[in-house]
Amino acid sequence: MYRTLRRPDAVLVQAVIAGALSFAHLHDLAAAAGQSGWKAWAYPISVDLLLVAAWRRLRVGRDGASWTWFAIALAASLGANIATAGLLDLDHVPAWLRIVVAGWPALAFLGGTLLVHTPTPRTATEAPSAEPELAVPEVELHRTDTAPVSAPASAPAELAPAPAKPPTPAAPVPTVPVALIDHARSIAETHRKTTGEPITADALTARLGLPAPTCQAIAAQLGLT
Question: Could you give the residue ranges of the DSSP H alpha helices within 61-142?
């Protein structure tokens, strides 16, 4: 910190000099336009405060209102600098300039109020929201693919030829509730909007977390491969 004080920044020194000169020019112009005493000193403060408020708003979010008030305050400051450079007779100020100087306080108050109380525009890009997780409805499932076990028969006196093994019946297709099909269709539609490709049967099975026969029946009804 002490090293910074011993070596002042050249840009900071330049800003102080420029601010002091602009402050004096605005004071001289206001005094020439009929604003005497403390009122002549209040004008440069009003212009600089509006300029700073517009600049702070531009750093947060660049909208049209911020640029407009920044340009108005900059034009007032720059116009005073040019007017006091010998291009304007300060002893005979034109009437339109007196009107502009007299109406500046109301204009500065309006600009400052709008800059402070107008909502700040959003500049940061919103992160894409994650895919919402839909609540899986509770479905009571009953397994129907198990065959009843018969009681063992008593051993015959003589060995008889073993009977032919009946063919194993195909597992019946489980009945899928309509709510579960709608839930799976919602997952498939969300996946298609997010990735641009249709969801596969394996991916849908992993997302549902249900038994394989039930997921296969759902994929068949949705036409998934």
Answer: 64-82, 95-117
86 φ/ψ sector (left φ>0, alpha ψ -120 to 50, else beta):
left
Q: What is the pTM of this model?
A: 0.44
Structure tokens at 97: 């300039």
CB hemisphere CA count around 46 (13 angstroms) = 23
Residues with Cβ within 8 Å of residue 203, at least 6 apart in sequence:
191
Question: In terms of Cα–Cα distance, which of 131, 140, 146, 133 is closest to 210?
Answer: 140
HSE-CB at 150 with a 13 A cutoff on CA atoms is: 3
Q: Which of 13-17, 41-45, 93-97, 143-147 has the lowest mean pLDDT?
A: 143-147
CB atoms within 10 A of CB 108: 22
